[in-house]
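Consortium newsletter contribution from the modelling node. Members have asked for a concrete example of what our holo predictions look like. Here is one, prepared for the IDC complex that several groups have been discussing at recent meetings.
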Amino acid sequence: MKKFICITILVVFILTLGCMGAGFTDVSKGAWYYNTVVEMTDKGILSGYKDGSFKPNDSITSAEFTAIVCRIKGVEPTGSFSHWAGGYMAAALNNGWYDYDEDPPTGEKFDKPIERQLAVKILMKALADDLTYDYNVESAKIKDFSQLNGRYYDTVLAAYSAGIAGGDNNGNFNPLSPLTRAEACTLIKKAMDKYKVTTVNTESEKHALEPEQPITVRSGGVSENGALCVKGSQLCNEDGEPVVLRGMSSHGLQWFPQFVSNDYIKAVGDRGANVMRFAMYTEQNGYIQDSSVKTTLISGVDNALANDMYAIIDWHILVDGNPLKHVDEAELFFKEMAERYKNSKGVIYEICNEPNGSVIWSYEVKPYAERIISAIRKIDKDAIILVGSPDWSKDLDNVSKDRLSYDNIMYTFHFYAGTHTQQYRDKVAGAINAGIPVFISEWGTSDAGGSGDVYVDETRNWLKFMEEKNLSWCNWSLCDKDETSAALLSGSNAADGLSDSELSASGKIVFNSFK
Ligand code: IDC
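And here is the predicted structure:
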């Protein structure tokens, strides 16, 4: 059924509707590649840049080309890598589309232009049913055949025979030269036509897998610290050294999906944050009412990972204070997330934002946590799991008396500077002294309603306290809602980063405290 492969189409570069198909500023109607570029960009296989250009003569990198081939072939990335395309490269290597020495998994060639001979090999190995050709006939077509490395004879000659590859005006194949984006379009289109690869464009999967841009390796990021663990009450990196995560929480993803785009997350990372929390409300038109919000969550998480930041998946219970109310849905959801991210070193699970109302730690929250943690642990053996407690994640006293018996668990504590003061710092300090690992997965500079003043002095007291205690934190929230706790001013644009002038009074304090 190779000929009828259903494939998923994704975009490699940032895709804006305005530059799809015709209308690229640098693709003129008369260009030899015009029709192909239009067709391939309309199908979403390659896309243009935000500024409306396509850059047809730029060379395509090894990672970009290989990721496209994986996607049109429906091959999923495997493994956990700091490079955005590491999983695609590993999958292609595992499938035998290229050999170890041609593009080592250490990645030094991933972002280099791909050689034409290697591009043809990867494409043919992935899509061709068989590699048939007449050596004498095909080799005679290639004027610079002597330049072609013998390991590429079968794939390049088969591609010539199938009419997929061809020479330049002088009849040269130029095996060692880079492939341009326009040429890559043409090559891929011909192979798809020849091997009858049909395309199915599923929006949800597009979001689910979209890597957007290559990552920037950040100091304090996932590539530096690796898989986290808990030692005593301290969060530690893969080498067992203390680590502190600082960053932002999203607002409700059902209301403000635009702020978990790559631009916003990158901008937060560029200001020094190394973690993003994604608040997926269960109620208030959240996941229980409309599970499509999961798509936003996944794209946010993928964006954070692509930016070398840790990502917290937050099951944001709030209106329904008893986590057991939706324990079945929670279990299914976390199993799915664990399957999806089990190989990633950067994902942290937060299983219940803020239990509240009449719930009791030992009777409701702990049994809920045991069920969800054991479901996650069956799939993802050692990721950090954050657990909330009654009283809007403040009941560390009862947690201390009756702890969960799993490794790599941390308990969340949430505060709002206008409401919670010294006595709450004492509470947290007491819990830490009792050996409880605490993670401040949500805090605000405002009052507990998210509004009121920015409580500058009390915020400073908390920041100092968290620094002294090596506590990791996420601030509420990365959005531009008209409320004090929102970090952004309306009209912010993260495409060129986020400067203080785009931040609210709260955002200014917080963004300047990441490092
Ligand atoms: C608030 C938002 C507000 C929204 C409200 C209701 O800031 O815009 O209308 O939720 O959903 C929390 C919660 C967090 C709250 C925040 C501020 O985890 O969802 O967000 N807060 O009230 N706990 C303590 C405070």
